[in-house]
Amino acid sequence: MSAARPLPADLPRDLEAEILRLKKERNAILLAHYYQESEVQALADGVGDSLQLARAAQKADCEVIAFCGVHFMAETAKILNPHRKVVVPDLEAGCSLADGCPVDQFRAFVARHPGAKVVTYINSSAEVKAMSDLICTSSNAVKMVEHFEGQPVVFAPDRHLARWVAREANRPDLIVWQGICIVHEQFSAKRLAELRVKHPDAEVLAHPECDDAVLAQADTIGSTSRIIERAIESPAKTLIIATEDGVFHQIRRRVPEKTLLQAPGPDEGCACNRCPYMRLNTLEKLYLCLRDLEPEVTVPEEIRVRALRPIEKMLELSA
Ligand code: 13P
Ligand code: SF4
Questions:
Q1: Is any ligand 1 atom within 6 A of the Cβ of residue 96?
Q2: Running DSSP on this structure, what letter comes out for residue 2?
Q3: What is the pLDDT of residues 31-43, one digit of tens each?
Q4: If we measure between CA atoms, which residue out of 85, 148, 119 comes closest to residue 290?
Q5: CATH topology of domain 97-182
Q6: 107 Cα: distance to centroid of ligand 2 (angstroms)
């Protein structure tokens, strides 16, 4: 990946208006994940979790997709859209789960389990997807594992998601790659328990990438879209949320009267529950990527074709 570009001194004053103008001029659509800054989400044609964004990318009818999320999400959009240009504000926006599962080591891991089906979380590189039988996201992981009932399954790369899926799908035999999300790993079960004592009526909503001791305290466990949905529909007036606080934007839009508390990290006042990769994307960099149509996300055709199969199968099975 190339180094981050320096920002020019002559950026337009009204970045939002320029982004909207360029979007039209370039025949581009802007897709954004729920962890993006609220001003980025506000300009997007589609905002969603990983599955919703993959679906939106599959239906894209445009010349350019400007993807505000992390690299594996934009790469998935490119795999589904070989003839469209996919650009991102910052190519350095990676993911600890994808980075922690290098293809050579994963190939050796899979080789130790001959005959096992490979279900891979979408938070992985195109190369790892290309070795998989089926891709999953946090919203359909249980269903995707259930698809291979009675057959051995390798599940990668998130070990916390894997433990939750193993329980929900009654698959204690899942063969698990031991990756972690550096953001969700930070939530402290002990400090969450203390916060619950202070707010006994609060409902706890958690992403399955959190560790088991945090999930054990959750009333609802689900993807970012499920967390947002439950926060809106729940009768609780106070919600404790164990995921990146980018999701607060959509909840506040719909239910501004509710009190949203972020599940605590290990230390008072730390911003360690913000995804440092997601937050590399800014309005300034989004403007530049639409102006210059770079940095572009590319996938070698041989890998793209192999990675497309398990992604399309997931979209088909979760339609
Ligand atoms: P969702 O698919 O739930 O949006 O999760 C993506 C992600 O990276 C969570 O950390
Ligand atoms: Fe990856 Fe975790 Fe960031 Fe999600 S929050 S993109 S899993 S590092």
A1: no
A2: P
A3: 999 999 999 999 9
A4: 85
A5: Rossmann fold (3.40.50)
A6: 23
